[in-house]
Amino acid sequence: MPIPALDENGFLPLGVHECTLEEVARRFGAFQDSDRRPRLFGQFRLFLAEARASGLVLAVIIDGSFVTSKPAPGDIDLVLVVRPDYDYLADISPGQYNVVTRSRVRRHFGFDVLLARDGQEEYGAAIRFYQQVREDPDRFKGILRITL
After folding, report:
1. How far apart are CA 107 and CA 147, in angstroms?
2. Percent composition of the chain: helix, strand, coil (DSSP 3-state, to 5)
């Protein structure tokens, strides 16, 4: 199913919309008054490759001004969806650490990330949090999900 049209306020309609990386590129990664969108999308593509290679991430939820009508979005907000039985205290490889560590992802890619175990309450809480419109917490918007 293609990414739905933005509403009159420049947001996706409420829901978690499954999509592909190519659909995100076509809809949100193209030049619009500045090179900010293509640059952010290039960073996102690199991050997604690392997330895929880590073997930890099942899906990525995409939010932030990047998935709005804003011509020059500030950043991309992500929820990294991991297995339901993921152990936050388990030892992981350096490559996996680089994908799930908020400070490293922020410094290297410029993205804000949260981790959430698929199907657990923390996943639902992350979805609800990211669906809120920051300027008006009583309003909600849609977000995107790419399954890896």
Report:
1. 24
2. 40, 25, 40
Instruction: Work out the widest C-alpha separation in the chain, in whole angstroms.
Output: 46
Residue 136, pLDDT > 90, answer no
CA distance to 31, 119, 144, per residue, from 18 (Å): 23, 16, 6
Phi, psi of 81 (to 5 degrees): -90, 120
Pairwise CA distance, residues 89 & 5, whole Å:
40
Q: Quick count: other Cβ atoms within 10 Å of Cβ 137?
A: 9
Among residues 20, 34, 31, 29, the alpha carbon closest in space to that of 148 is found at 20
- Give the span between the Cα atoms of 109 and 104, in whole angstroms: 8
pLDDT-based confidence at residue 71 (cuts at 50, 70, 90): confident
What is the model's pTM? 0.93
Question: Under a CB-based contact definition with an 8 Å cutoff, are residues 109 and 46 in contact?
Answer: yes
